[in-house]
Amino acid sequence: MYAPVRARCAAMMSDSSLGGMRVRLSARYASDDELVADLLRVAMLLGTGPFTRKNYERLGQYNPSTIHRRLGGWAEAIKRAGLEGGRPDLGHDDTVWMTNIFEVWVARGKQPSYGHMRGSRFSPEGYASRYGSWGKALTKFQAWLDSGEGVVALPPTSEVREGHATGKTPSLRLRWEVLQRDGFTCVTCGRSPATEAGVVLHVDHHRAYSKGGETVIDNLRVLCDRCNLGKSDR
Question: Helices 124-131 and 134-147 meet at what angle, rounded to 10?
């Protein structure tokens, strides 16, 4: 008795007009992270192809209108997924991804969590997609710092001036070592972005570079922007 039904189903599935049919999952109980993860999944399927709403509608598990509503619009959803220009922003080398963690860490004054990466250049979902998980991204970050590969050249070291053995601008690695040694805290007033929002930390010379001070760890210290600017005023 089921043969006619099976025949009709087979005929329907062979109908080219139904080739775009796919199951849609309910997003009612899906978290925002799950929606973003599906955007990344589709982006990976597309490779370097354009990541458009139409392409997501063809390959995605959720209705694009749901993603639009839940994540504040299609453009915002793309941004949250760490997708740049409609394509997965996974082509940068590790230095760019690791430097972004460095910048967020310094801005917060402590190790950033998965959620802290929102609003930075790359989303936490982007890190999870590239490195397997946020924890593995942090492990990669530590290995990257320890190896020194690519770190010493960011930012570019300044030109060594006459009478000096070092350039004025500390390398990224040297800045990191000073910040860690001083606990991401201003050595003068004790302010830190970890305890006070909006604090900006500077790596400053004890003995001014203009007065013969070298850019070495023993001549560097962490000052907040307020103390550093106040010192300059004096």
Answer: 80
